[in-house]
Amino acid sequence: MRRYTQSAIGMMLLCFLAGCSSEASKDETKASTAPASDVTFFSGARLIPGDGTAATENASFIVENGKFASIGKKEDVKPPKGAARVDLEGRTVMPVLINLHGHVGLNSGASFSPKNYTRESVLADLSRYAYYGVAAVAVLGSDAGDTVFQIRDEQRQGKTGGAQLFTAGRGITAKGGGPAALGDIPIQVSTEADARKAVRDQAAKKVDFIKIWVDDNMGRVPKLKPELYRAIIDEAHKNSLRAVAHVFYLADAKDLVKSGIDGLVHSIRDREVDGELISMMKEKNVFLVPTLTGHESQFIYADRPSWLGEQAMREVYPAQLSAYLANDVVVNRFKRNAELPQLRQQYSTAEQNLKKMAAAGVRVGFGTDSGSADTYPGYFELREMELMAAAGMPAMDVIKAATSVSAGVLGLHNIGTLAVGKNADFLALSNNPLEKMRSMKDIATIYKNGAEMDRPSMIQNITINVPKITDKDRAEDAALQAEAARIAAEAKLDHYGKFVLGPSANVRSMAVPTPKGSRADVKTGPPDRITISFRASAVELREFYAKALPKYRWQPNGSCWERPHPSSSKAEVLCVETSSPNTALLQITEK
């Protein structure tokens, strides 16, 4: 494992949160490039408000004491006497981003584990989010212990930097349910009493949401039952908390909305959504967070995506990480996943559903599931916006989802739109995302309360662990690839039950079929005996011989098979005994 550190000139991590106290430390104040006066005149930019209304070309605006004092066309807004001036000609300005579904502290390069979770790893991820213009992130269900609450409280006191942290604490799942990768972090419940207690325990810690998992991981694990998630939702509302759900199936989504869920924080991927769900979500104002990057990350590395190692990614995540993810060993691991076609189809369904729901007026928020396995905080938020646009959402609606809609969900009323009276927290982009959403990756400057932020200082000395591909890894990959090739080749051959034919066993000039890969021990008689050793159940071996023997001129005769001897024409009878797994005894007698 190699450790790579982002080196940059800068000072301390910069506080990037809407509710940051004005009592911030002197060091934090120095970390921003403060305007020369309390009034700054910005001019020449294309301004996207973030509320869905049209952009203003060649806009000017005045920031006074950290807030927008005036916004309009360049000719309509004049610089106040003595104001500092910032020329933004050729730039596009828009609100900072708000992530409604992320994770922190668990992902270190290519390693995802609760063992990675420390105060330092949490702060590192919050800084990565901030570097890419994410002002706030809601961590949904993967925070254990008191660390996250301490950091959240410090942020609200202006003592700690990074993206503003919201947390659901420990999520709630079924007894024996997933996600397994989170270990003991999720609270497992099996009764309504357990479910309600889990909510009260999290409420006592002053969580911002209650998160539940309603998913069986394609049939692998138990799924939270309706009576349990209804109790959780009810108890959350009694404690003045909103409940959000990880969901996969349309049927579950419908029942969750009927049961009072406040948000669905993953895409529905089993089938196309229908009018009933859409109508209910609109009526109840339930928000959707599509997390397309989270779903894409389960298969995309099999394709060596072109964005791996691009400049915007390398600014925070070293080229060595991209090289690792593009290495044949890693690519082949993703390609060998038997569920790869299903994952691609599920993603396609998620795209179609997002387009349909957004067009129908469902409230779409913004989130990525970044910080989970093989996803990268901050950079993946910019990728998410590309994917939402590629799915068919209009660019202006994507920006609205990522800014004002999500800020509204978190109650961040001072940010999320560029409007008079709001905090002057905004991004300045080199290019126009309304023309091409990948321009979101062209962040030139981030402003906090009208002051330019020192972006390099946010990621100074952040360490990322990048695994090294070893000779052992390559050897294991080669063996697995050879096995995969063998299986693929055999899949094209005729099968007799589950198996293909191997070399024949011969007894007195008579051929007897054997499964490929088996061992045949022939002992002449009479009676002649052939012992077949093969890793298979008795049922599988019986099925093989029932289908394969007729190919060798053996015809059914009661519970055995019969054929004439090729030279004597006397009848020969073959009986198969499979009283134990992994062994078949074939006995041949002359009739």
In brief:
The protein is of the alpha/beta class and 591 residues long.
Classify the secondary structure makeup into a structural class: alpha/beta
- Number of helical stretches of at least 4 residues: 17
Reported for the largest beta sheet, the result is: 9 strands, mixed
Count of beta strands? 32
Strand content: 15-25%
What are the low-pLDDT stretches, counting only 5+ consecutive residues below 50? 7-36
Instruction: Provide the residue-averaged pLDDT.
Output: 92
- Straight-line N-to-C gap: 69 Å
Fraction of residues in helix? 25-40%
Radius of gyration: 31 Å
Shape: elongated
What does the model show?
The protein has 591 residues and is an alpha/beta fold. 31% of the residues lie in helices and 25% in strands. The strands form eight sheets. Strands 3, 4, 5, 6, 7, 8, 21, 22 and 23 form a nine-stranded mixed β-sheet that branches. α4 (192-204) packs parallel to α5 (226-238) and α6 (250-258) packs parallel to α7 (275-284).
